[in-house]
Amino acid sequence: MELPEIAIVVSSVSAAIAGTNAFVSFRTFRRVRPKVKVRLWRVGVQVHEADGVPPDLVFTLRLLNNGTTPVSVERIELVAYESRFHRFSNSVLVKGIRFVSGGKHEPIIIPALDGTTYRFLVSSKLPDSKSKEGHGRFRVLLSNGREAHSRLVKYRQGLIAD
How many domains, the chain? Predict the structure, then answer.
């Protein structure tokens, strides 16, 4: 083999090694990032003793982090949709809670390969719509800018019918 052919072989092998290194780095990055799942664990009703005060719906959310990096939660929202096909329907923010240090709600930190629970209170008077049925979903905004969603929940006249 002549010198130019050897140079082409060496550069080709070098490029293949560099490409393999980039692929391994990308896979490591994807493996290490937080993978958060939101599960609606329980639904309950909290009744107040005062007359005329509507009861609160209590949602117990289970936030699971299957990644190897801990992550904190910036905001939890309950979003109501008029239709099951929520991408094409109007959405209404029912309630949102922002977590800040030193505020009313302390930040939630989800440890790596673990989970935590959070109780979310919502008035039983869900937003009025033309129909008395709707669908809702919990949206969790994480500190790294990503969002995690729960599965769709069906409600009817203020009652959650899962």
Answer: 2
